[in-house]
Amino acid sequence: MFSVIIPVHNKLPHLERSINSVLNQSFQDFELLLIDDASTDGSTEKLFEFNDSRIKRFRREKPGPGGYAARNLGIKNAKYEWIAFLDADDEWLPDHLEKMKVVAKDFPQISLMSCGYQIRDRNHEEENAFYNKYKDKGNIEIDLREYLFHSLSKRRPVWTSVAFIRKDSPISKELFPAKTGAKRGGDLYAWLKMMCFHKKMIWSDHVGAVYYLDNTNMVTKTAKASPQLMSKNAFNELSGNLDHFEKKLLRKYMNASLKSAYLGALNREEELFNLTRMIYWKGDLYNALKLFILSLVPKRGLLLIKKLKHRI
Questions:
Q1: Which of 69, 163, 208, 273 to pair with 91, CA 20 to 30 A apart?
Q2: pLDDT by residue (tens digit) across 232-259?
Q3: How many structural domains comprise the chain?
Q4: Are residues 36 and 83 in the same domain?
Q5: Per-residue pLDDT tens over the stretch 37-73
Q6: Residue 194 sits in which domain range?
Protein backbone atom coordinates (compact mmCIF):
# COMPACT_ATOMS: atom_id res chain seq x y z
CA MET A 1 0.00 0.00 0.00
CA PHE A 2 2.67 2.52 1.00
CA SER A 3 6.31 3.09 0.08
CA VAL A 4 7.88 5.30 2.75
CA ILE A 5 11.01 7.29 1.84
CA ILE A 6 13.46 8.69 4.40
CA PRO A 7 16.52 10.50 3.00
CA VAL A 8 19.43 10.49 5.45
CA HIS A 9 22.40 12.84 5.46
CA ASN A 10 24.25 13.08 8.78
CA LYS A 11 21.20 12.62 11.00
CA LEU A 12 22.60 10.09 13.45
CA PRO A 13 21.07 11.57 16.66
CA HIS A 14 17.54 11.38 15.22
CA LEU A 15 17.39 8.07 13.34
CA GLU A 16 16.00 5.99 16.20
CA ARG A 17 13.08 8.38 16.52
CA SER A 18 12.20 8.74 12.85
CA ILE A 19 12.69 5.15 11.67
CA ASN A 20 10.95 3.58 14.66
CA SER A 21 8.02 5.93 14.20
CA VAL A 22 7.46 4.22 10.84
CA LEU A 23 8.13 0.67 11.99
CA ASN A 24 5.71 1.11 14.90
CA GLN A 25 2.76 2.30 12.82
CA SER A 26 -0.61 0.72 13.59
CA PHE A 27 -0.97 0.00 9.85
CA GLN A 28 1.88 -2.32 8.90
CA ASP A 29 1.52 -2.81 5.14
CA PHE A 30 4.43 -0.75 3.82
CA GLU A 31 8.01 -0.80 2.63
CA LEU A 32 10.59 1.58 4.06
CA LEU A 33 13.26 2.97 1.76
CA LEU A 34 16.24 4.44 3.62
CA ILE A 35 18.34 6.57 1.28
CA ASP A 36 21.78 7.23 2.72
CA ASP A 37 22.85 10.47 1.05
CA ALA A 38 26.61 10.06 1.56
CA SER A 39 26.52 10.41 5.35
CA THR A 40 29.81 10.72 7.24
CA ASP A 41 28.66 10.90 10.89
CA GLY A 42 27.90 7.23 11.54
CA SER A 43 24.41 7.31 10.05
CA THR A 44 25.45 4.75 7.41
CA GLU A 45 26.34 2.15 10.03
CA LYS A 46 23.29 3.02 12.13
CA LEU A 47 20.91 2.24 9.28
CA PHE A 48 22.08 -1.39 9.27
CA GLU A 49 21.08 -1.79 12.94
CA PHE A 50 17.40 -1.75 11.97
CA ASN A 51 16.40 -5.32 11.19
CA ASP A 52 13.09 -5.49 9.39
CA SER A 53 12.24 -7.30 6.16
CA ARG A 54 10.37 -4.26 4.88
CA ILE A 55 13.48 -2.06 4.91
CA LYS A 56 15.42 -1.38 1.72
CA ARG A 57 18.69 0.54 1.88
CA PHE A 58 20.25 2.65 -0.85
CA ARG A 59 23.38 4.80 -0.78
CA ARG A 60 24.43 7.76 -2.84
CA GLU A 61 28.16 8.48 -2.94
CA LYS A 62 27.77 12.23 -3.31
CA PRO A 63 25.26 14.18 -1.17
CA GLY A 64 22.60 16.14 -3.01
CA PRO A 65 21.43 19.52 -1.66
CA GLY A 66 18.19 19.31 0.32
CA GLY A 67 17.93 15.56 -0.09
CA TYR A 68 16.13 16.08 -3.41
CA ALA A 69 18.19 13.57 -5.40
CA ALA A 70 17.79 11.06 -2.55
CA ARG A 71 14.00 11.41 -2.62
CA ASN A 72 13.97 11.02 -6.41
CA LEU A 73 16.01 7.83 -6.02
CA GLY A 74 13.49 6.57 -3.50
CA ILE A 75 10.59 7.32 -5.85
CA LYS A 76 12.35 5.44 -8.65
CA ASN A 77 12.71 2.33 -6.48
CA ALA A 78 9.32 2.46 -4.74
CA LYS A 79 6.98 -0.40 -5.60
CA TYR A 80 3.67 0.52 -3.96
CA GLU A 81 0.75 2.65 -5.08
CA TRP A 82 1.29 5.52 -2.66
CA ILE A 83 4.64 7.12 -1.76
CA ALA A 84 5.00 8.82 1.62
CA PHE A 85 7.85 11.04 2.79
CA LEU A 86 9.42 11.53 6.21
CA ASP A 87 12.45 13.65 7.04
CA ALA A 88 15.07 11.80 9.04
CA ASP A 89 14.90 14.25 11.96
CA ASP A 90 11.11 14.22 12.40
CA GLU A 91 8.59 11.55 13.36
CA TRP A 92 5.16 10.17 12.58
CA LEU A 93 2.43 9.62 15.12
CA PRO A 94 1.42 5.95 15.50
CA ASP A 95 -1.86 5.97 13.54
CA HIS A 96 -0.73 8.21 10.67
CA LEU A 97 -0.63 5.54 7.94
CA GLU A 98 -3.88 4.00 9.18
CA LYS A 99 -5.70 7.28 8.72
CA MET A 100 -4.09 8.09 5.38
CA LYS A 101 -5.08 4.64 4.11
CA VAL A 102 -8.73 5.57 4.69
CA VAL A 103 -8.29 8.88 2.88
CA ALA A 104 -6.64 7.18 -0.10
CA LYS A 105 -9.54 4.72 -0.32
CA ASP A 106 -12.19 7.46 -0.08
CA PHE A 107 -10.56 9.65 -2.77
CA PRO A 108 -9.23 7.26 -5.43
CA GLN A 109 -8.80 9.97 -8.11
CA ILE A 110 -6.45 12.14 -6.02
CA SER A 111 -2.65 12.10 -6.55
CA LEU A 112 -1.54 14.28 -3.62
CA MET A 113 -2.53 13.99 0.05
CA SER A 114 -1.44 15.59 3.30
CA CYS A 115 -2.66 16.27 6.84
CA GLY A 116 -1.97 18.37 9.91
CA TYR A 117 1.26 18.29 11.87
CA GLN A 118 2.72 19.56 15.09
CA ILE A 119 5.66 21.98 15.37
CA ARG A 120 7.81 21.37 18.42
CA ASP A 121 10.98 22.53 20.14
CA ARG A 122 12.25 22.20 23.69
CA ASN A 123 10.02 24.94 25.06
CA HIS A 124 6.94 25.03 22.87
CA GLU A 125 4.61 22.99 20.70
CA GLU A 126 1.73 23.94 18.44
CA GLU A 127 -0.18 22.65 15.45
CA ASN A 128 0.44 24.18 12.03
CA ALA A 129 -1.66 27.12 10.83
CA PHE A 130 -3.79 25.24 8.29
CA TYR A 131 -4.73 22.60 10.85
CA ASN A 132 -5.63 25.23 13.44
CA LYS A 133 -8.04 26.88 11.02
CA TYR A 134 -9.65 23.76 9.52
CA LYS A 135 -9.30 21.00 12.11
CA ASP A 136 -13.06 20.77 12.67
CA LYS A 137 -14.02 20.74 8.98
CA GLY A 138 -13.33 17.09 8.13
CA ASN A 139 -11.26 16.03 5.13
CA ILE A 140 -10.94 18.88 2.63
CA GLU A 141 -10.51 18.82 -1.12
CA ILE A 142 -8.26 21.72 -2.16
CA ASP A 143 -7.96 22.95 -5.73
CA LEU A 144 -5.00 24.86 -7.16
CA ARG A 145 -6.51 28.31 -6.59
CA GLU A 146 -7.25 27.51 -2.96
CA TYR A 147 -3.77 26.04 -2.53
CA LEU A 148 -2.17 29.24 -3.79
CA PHE A 149 -4.47 31.41 -1.65
CA HIS A 150 -3.61 29.40 1.46
CA SER A 151 0.11 29.50 0.67
CA LEU A 152 0.01 33.27 0.20
CA SER A 153 -1.77 33.52 3.56
CA LYS A 154 1.00 31.48 5.24
CA ARG A 155 -1.30 28.49 5.69
CA ARG A 156 0.32 26.05 3.29
CA PRO A 157 -1.60 22.74 3.49
CA VAL A 158 1.36 20.48 2.58
CA TRP A 159 4.60 19.81 4.42
CA THR A 160 7.15 17.18 3.41
CA SER A 161 6.76 14.75 6.31
CA VAL A 162 2.98 14.48 5.80
CA ALA A 163 3.02 14.48 1.98
CA PHE A 164 1.82 11.49 -0.05
CA ILE A 165 1.96 11.17 -3.84
CA ARG A 166 0.76 8.51 -6.25
CA LYS A 167 3.55 6.47 -7.81
CA ASP A 168 1.71 6.51 -11.16
CA SER A 169 1.55 10.30 -11.38
CA PRO A 170 3.06 11.33 -14.74
CA ILE A 171 5.34 13.78 -12.92
CA SER A 172 6.45 11.58 -10.00
CA LYS A 173 9.73 10.79 -11.76
CA GLU A 174 12.28 13.49 -10.93
CA LEU A 175 9.61 15.29 -8.90
CA PHE A 176 12.18 17.09 -6.77
CA PRO A 177 14.41 19.68 -8.51
CA ALA A 178 17.72 17.93 -7.91
CA LYS A 179 19.28 19.10 -11.18
CA THR A 180 18.66 22.81 -10.62
CA GLY A 181 21.31 23.29 -7.96
CA ALA A 182 18.62 24.43 -5.50
CA LYS A 183 19.65 24.04 -1.87
CA ARG A 184 16.34 24.89 -0.21
CA GLY A 185 12.66 25.14 -1.17
CA GLY A 186 12.75 22.12 -3.46
CA ASP A 187 10.08 20.32 -1.49
CA LEU A 188 7.71 23.31 -1.77
CA TYR A 189 8.43 23.35 -5.50
CA ALA A 190 7.56 19.64 -5.72
CA TRP A 191 4.14 20.10 -4.09
CA LEU A 192 3.43 23.14 -6.23
CA LYS A 193 4.39 21.11 -9.29
CA MET A 194 1.95 18.38 -8.25
CA MET A 195 -0.83 20.92 -7.75
CA CYS A 196 -0.23 22.72 -11.04
CA PHE A 197 -0.41 19.41 -12.90
CA HIS A 198 -3.21 17.60 -11.02
CA LYS A 199 -5.13 20.70 -9.86
CA LYS A 200 -6.48 19.02 -6.69
CA MET A 201 -5.34 17.45 -3.44
CA ILE A 202 -6.89 16.08 -0.25
CA TRP A 203 -6.07 17.26 3.24
CA SER A 204 -6.89 14.91 6.14
CA ASP A 205 -8.04 16.42 9.43
CA HIS A 206 -5.64 14.59 11.71
CA VAL A 207 -2.20 15.39 13.11
CA GLY A 208 0.14 12.89 11.50
CA ALA A 209 3.68 14.03 12.31
CA VAL A 210 5.92 16.18 14.46
CA TYR A 211 8.26 18.75 12.96
CA TYR A 212 11.18 19.38 15.33
CA LEU A 213 12.83 22.79 15.21
CA ASP A 214 15.88 21.97 17.33
CA ASN A 215 17.47 19.26 15.19
CA THR A 216 21.05 18.95 13.96
CA ASN A 217 22.16 19.72 10.40
CA MET A 218 18.88 21.37 9.36
CA VAL A 219 18.71 22.55 5.75
CA THR A 220 16.36 25.39 6.73
CA LYS A 221 19.09 26.86 8.95
CA THR A 222 22.13 26.46 6.71
CA ALA A 223 21.17 26.24 3.01
CA LYS A 224 21.46 29.25 0.73
CA ALA A 225 18.54 30.81 -1.12
CA SER A 226 17.40 29.13 -4.34
CA PRO A 227 15.92 31.88 -6.54
CA GLN A 228 16.13 29.60 -9.58
CA LEU A 229 12.96 27.91 -8.31
CA MET A 230 11.12 31.22 -8.88
CA SER A 231 12.65 31.97 -12.29
CA LYS A 232 10.76 32.54 -15.52
CA ASN A 233 11.81 29.05 -16.65
CA ALA A 234 10.29 27.60 -13.49
CA PHE A 235 7.10 29.58 -14.07
CA ASN A 236 6.86 28.31 -17.65
CA GLU A 237 7.32 24.72 -16.48
CA LEU A 238 4.57 25.05 -13.91
CA SER A 239 2.05 27.13 -15.82
CA GLY A 240 1.56 25.13 -19.01
CA ASN A 241 -1.68 23.59 -17.73
CA LEU A 242 -3.10 26.71 -16.04
CA ASP A 243 -5.86 29.14 -16.97
CA HIS A 244 -5.52 32.95 -16.89
CA PHE A 245 -6.54 33.39 -13.24
CA GLU A 246 -4.36 30.50 -12.05
CA LYS A 247 -1.37 32.04 -13.82
CA LYS A 248 -2.09 35.35 -12.13
CA LEU A 249 -2.14 33.67 -8.73
CA LEU A 250 1.04 31.77 -9.56
CA ARG A 251 2.81 35.05 -10.35
CA LYS A 252 1.72 36.40 -6.95
CA TYR A 253 3.04 33.22 -5.36
CA MET A 254 6.36 33.62 -7.19
CA ASN A 255 6.69 37.24 -6.07
CA ALA A 256 5.97 36.26 -2.46
CA SER A 257 8.55 33.46 -2.72
CA LEU A 258 11.12 35.86 -4.17
CA LYS A 259 10.59 38.25 -1.27
CA SER A 260 10.96 35.43 1.25
CA ALA A 261 14.11 34.14 -0.44
CA TYR A 262 15.64 37.63 -0.66
CA LEU A 263 15.00 38.49 2.98
CA GLY A 264 16.12 35.03 4.02
CA ALA A 265 19.41 35.51 2.19
CA LEU A 266 19.79 38.86 3.95
CA ASN A 267 19.15 37.33 7.38
CA ARG A 268 21.72 34.59 6.70
CA GLU A 269 24.18 37.25 5.47
CA GLU A 270 24.47 35.66 2.02
CA GLU A 271 25.30 37.45 -1.20
CA LEU A 272 21.98 38.86 -2.46
CA PHE A 273 20.70 37.69 -5.84
CA ASN A 274 19.49 40.06 -8.59
CA LEU A 275 15.91 40.52 -7.49
CA THR A 276 15.10 43.24 -10.04
CA ARG A 277 15.39 40.90 -13.03
CA MET A 278 13.16 38.24 -11.50
CA ILE A 279 10.09 40.27 -10.50
CA TYR A 280 6.70 39.28 -11.98
CA TRP A 281 4.95 42.50 -13.01
CA LYS A 282 1.99 41.15 -14.98
CA GLY A 283 -1.11 40.78 -12.82
CA ASP A 284 0.65 41.67 -9.57
CA LEU A 285 1.71 45.29 -9.96
CA TYR A 286 1.34 46.28 -6.30
CA ASN A 287 3.60 43.55 -4.94
CA ALA A 288 5.96 43.91 -7.91
CA LEU A 289 6.46 47.60 -7.08
CA LYS A 290 7.23 46.76 -3.46
CA LEU A 291 9.78 44.19 -4.59
CA PHE A 292 11.33 46.68 -7.00
CA ILE A 293 11.74 49.25 -4.21
CA LEU A 294 13.21 46.54 -1.97
CA SER A 295 15.71 45.65 -4.70
CA LEU A 296 16.90 49.27 -4.90
CA VAL A 297 17.87 49.48 -1.21
CA PRO A 298 21.58 48.68 -0.74
CA LYS A 299 22.39 45.69 1.40
CA ARG A 300 23.95 47.96 4.02
CA GLY A 301 20.69 49.89 4.25
CA LEU A 302 18.63 46.73 4.63
CA LEU A 303 20.87 45.53 7.44
CA LEU A 304 20.53 48.90 9.16
CA ILE A 305 16.73 48.72 8.93
CA LYS A 306 16.87 45.22 10.34
CA LYS A 307 18.92 46.39 13.33
CA LEU A 308 16.56 49.29 14.01
CA LYS A 309 13.55 46.94 13.96
CA HIS A 310 15.23 44.67 16.49
CA ARG A 311 15.90 47.58 18.81
CA ILE A 312 12.30 48.73 18.61
A1: 69
A2: 999 999 999 999 999 999 999 999 999 9
A3: 2
A4: yes
A5: 999 999 999 999 999 999 999 999 998 888 999 999 9
A6: 2-217
Q: What share of the chain in percent tops pLDDT 70?
A: 96
| Same domain, residue pair 205 and 241 | no
Q: What confidence score (pLDDT) does residue 59 get? A: 96
191 and 307 both lie in a single domain: no
Q: Are residues 201 and 122 in the same domain?
A: yes
**What's the rounded Cα separation, in Å, for the pair 255 and 23?**
41
Q: Which of 217, 248, 274 is the last residue of a domain?
A: 217
Give the model confidence (pLDDT) of 161-205 as tens digits.
999 999 999 999 999 999 999 999 999 999 999 999 999 999 999
Exposed e or buried b per residue across 258-269, where buried means at least 16 C-beta atoms within 10 angstroms of its C-beta: bbebbebbbeee
Are 164 and 170 in contact by the 8 Å Cβ rule? The answer is no
